[in-house]
Write a structure and sequence with these properties.
This protein is α/β, with parallel strands linked by helices and about 500 residues long. It folds into three domains: about 1-195, no CATH class; about 220-260, no CATH class; about 260-495, Domain of unknown function DUF4159 (Rossmann fold). It has helices spanning about 1-5, 10-35, 40-60, 65-90, 95-140, 175-195, 305-315, 330, 355-365, 380-395, 405-410, 445-450, 460-495, and strands spanning about 220-230, 250-255, 285-290, 290, 325, 340-345, 350, 370-375, 400, 430-435, 435-445. Strands 6-8-11-10-9 form a five-stranded mixed beta sheet. The protein is elongated, with a radius of gyration of 34 Å.
Length: about 500
């Protein structure tokens, strides 16, 4: 490796060192320290500088191929982490997941290639040096040269880089050395990944939109509109008969007192929003990314975003520009108080969650005052999977049918009947109730399909009702979380 480093010219070495240090400082601050509020310039500068240097080395690769591959190796983690950062910055959750996986796999394979290449180079050099030493001894004794492998070693060789080390055996020592190197590299790589995964990254924050309001049932009212018709003066003695219209006509119009006439939210404040929010906050939509079946159906534009757009139309509250997908570990990275109030879980196959994932979801519900919104995306199997998941999360809480007159079905919009697109898990909404609130709402009939473009072909009555039910659940979770945040702030102030 020292020889490889010497083959790289001084300018390339210093550029690589400086760019790597800038990138390393940006990653450390972004993930753990958080001194800077914006790392865009650091990541963009490191990526651009590395791209320019990589292009130059590619053009000169015929002069020094090792130098090119060294620059390529340094570029991998820089582009990898920059891709993750900008995916987060642009709120592209799916793209972030792909970048993270591809980057990790590329980094692993590149490191493995360097390990295999380095060990092979060192092994060959040791073999050459040993052969020269024995040839020199034979020449000095005026004897015929004897190969190393034909003589018994004078002492055991312990150097793992030497293929003649005693623990590689007499049969196929080079193959055994290669296999040992591969296993050692894999174990070291995954061990480092496991250690790093135990450190929580930079804390994420979810802020509610500032404002206030009340969450009351949107009332239906009857407006009486009197339409004045033209008046006709008729001659009663005329021989011509006229079918005279009514002079006045009364028209009844059924309409709703909408959010435009009062603020939907909670607490005192200007505009629709929450007293526990701030001016930077907005209502977002988060869904759980898990190992299993179709967690991402109707995700993003054309699905979740339709619900967010309709939510701001129905409530007047500020919403996020993009919906997001979060894994359990990403959910754990959110602040203990300023975290998402609602987590959407859908699918139609298995819900594969480990014990640590279940622990994170339990902490999210009970310690962070979160709420789960389950939606059966397509099978009775998912229904059973969801109930089993909730049993693991909240074993002492049993699911019950949510009454039609419950607040979650009445405010801000009255939902006389749960809208069902397809009864995969029945036609009754189930809920888990604890500590005076619903900690989970389960919709058995694929409400997400009603939000999607085309509305799965259901009637306008069903998809309109689905949007309103979604708005009720989102608002319910945010109102409860806003009040809980205020209580947490007051209790913290009293403790101080």
């Amino acid at each position: 490796m020292l020889e490889t480093w010497r083959n790289i010219n001084r300018r390339t070495r210093w550029i690589a060192v400086v760019v790597t240090l800038v990138w390393f400082a940006a990653v450390i601050d972004w993930v753990w320290v958080g001194l800077l509020s914006d790392h865009t310039l650091l990541f963009a500068g490191a990526a651009i500088a590395m791209a320019i240097r990589l292009r130059i080395e590619y053009r000169r690769r015929h002069e020094n191929l090792i130098r090119f591959w060294f620059a390529f190796t340094v570029a991998i983690p820089i582009f990898w982490q920059a891709g993750i950062y900008f995916s987060d910055w642009l709120e592209f959750g799916v793209l972030r997941g792909y970048v993270a996986r591809v980057g990790l796999a590329t980094f692993f394979i590149t490191g493995l290639i360097w390990v295999v290449w380095g060990i092979e180079r060192i092994s060959q050099r040791l073999e050459v040096e040993r052969r020269k030493a024995f040839d020199l001894q034979a020449t000095l004794r005026h004897e015929a040269p004897v190969r190393t492998k034909d003589k018994e070693p004078q002492a055991k060789i312990w150097n793992p880089l030497d293929p003649q080390a005693w623990y590689y055996g007499q049969k196929s020592p080079r193959l055994n050395q290669s296999l040992s190197s591969f296993v050692s590299y894999c174990l070291t790589f995954f061990l480092v990944c496991m250690i790093l995964s135990q450190f929580r990254g930079c804390t994420q924050y979810y802020d509610l939109p500032a404002g206030g309001g009340v969450t009351e049932t949107v009332q239906q009212v009857v407006k009486i509109q009197k339409i004045i018709r033209k008046k006709f003066i008729l001659n009663p003695f005329s021989a011509i008969y006229y079918n005279a219209p009514e002079i006045d006509e009364v028209k009844l119009e059924l309409s709703e007192v909408t959010a435009h006439q009062y603020n939907i939210g909670d607490g005192e404040g200007e505009g629709a929003g929450f007293a526990g929010g701030n001016n930077k906050g907005s209502v977002g939509f988060f869904r759980l990314e898990y190992a299993g079946g179709d967690w991402n159906q109707d995700f993003g534009i054309g699905g979740d975003m339709n619900m967010l757009i309709k939510y701001t139309e129905l409530t007047g509250q500020k919403v996020a520009k993009q919906s997001k997908a979060v894994s359990p570990s990403q959910l754990q990275a959110f602040d203990k108080v300023r975290c998402p109030p609602l987590l959407y879980i859908t699918g139609q196959k298995n819900i594969s969650l480990g014990n640590n994932d279940i622990k994170i979801l339990r902490e999210y519900i009970f310690d962070k005052h979160g709420m789960i919104f389950g939606d059966n995306g397509g099978s009775r199997h998912f229904h059973n999977q969801f109930l089993a998941m909730m049993q693991r999360i909240a074993g002492d809480v049993k699911p019950v049918r949510i009454p039609a007159d419950d607040d979650i079905h009445m405010k801000p919009y009255q939902i006389p009947k749960v809208p069902i697109v397809a009864p995969h898990g029945g036609v009754q909404a189930l809920g888990w109730f604890k500590d005076g609130r619903w900690i989970c709402y389960y919709h058995p009939g694929d409400i997400g399909d009603a939000w999607a473009d085309g509305h799965a072909g259901v009637s306008a009555e069903i998809w309109n009702s689905s949007y309103r039910l979604g708005a009720n659940i989102i608002n319910y979770a945010h109102v409860g979380h806003s009040r809980w945040r205020i209580a947490q702030q007051k209790s913290t102030g009293e403790d101080e």
